[in-house]
Specification:
120 residues; mainly alpha; two-stranded antiparallel ribbon; 4 helices; rod-shaped
C-alpha cells in the first residue's frame, strides 16, 4: 500500500480545520444567544408586563371602593399569583396582597410619573 499523495493530505487537514472552526463558531454563537436572550433581564417587564398590566386594570376597575379594591387585590393574588399593592396618589395604602408591601413613591417620583407620557 502506498501513502496518499501529499496534496490529498493537505486537503484532508484543511477540511478538518474548517469543520472544527465552523463547529467552534456555532458553539460560540449558541453561547452568545443564550447569554443575551436567557440570562439578560427583559426590558420593560418582559413576558410579565402584559400580566401586570392586566392585573392593574382589574384593580383599577374597582377603584371607587377601597373594600372592592382589597377584594380585587386578593383575587389577583389567588388567581394570577401576582402580589399587588395599591396606593392612593398621596401615598396612602389602599390594599396589598404582599406580606411586606413596597414603600410608596417619594414626592419627586410621583411628580415624574405624573408627567410621563406612558405609565409603566
Amino acid at each position: 500500500m502506498t501513502a496518499p499523495p501529499m496534496k490529498h493530505r493537505h486537503r484532508l487537514a484543511l477540511r478538518i480545520y474548517l469543520v472544527s472552526a465552523a463547529a467552534l463558531a456555532a458553539v460560540l454563537l449558541a453561547l452568545y444567544l443564550f447569554a443575551t436572550v436567557v440570562l439578560r433581564p427583559p426590558e420593560h417587564g418582559g413576558p410579565f408586563a402584559d400580566k401586570a398590566r392586566y392585573a392593574a386594570s382589574k384593580i383599577a376597575e374597582r377603584w371607587a371602593s377601597p373594600s372592592a379594591v382589597a377584594e380585587e387585590v386578593e383575587a389577583v393574588l389567588l388567581q394570577m399569583h401576582v402580589a399587588a399593592t395599591a396606593y392612593r396618589w398621596d401615598g396612602t395604602l389602599v390594599a396589598s396582597g404582599a406580606p411586606r408591601p413596597a414603600a410608596p413613591l417619594a414626592d419627586g417620583e410621583r411628580l415624574a410619573l405624573g408627567r410621563a407620557p406612558v405609565l409603566e
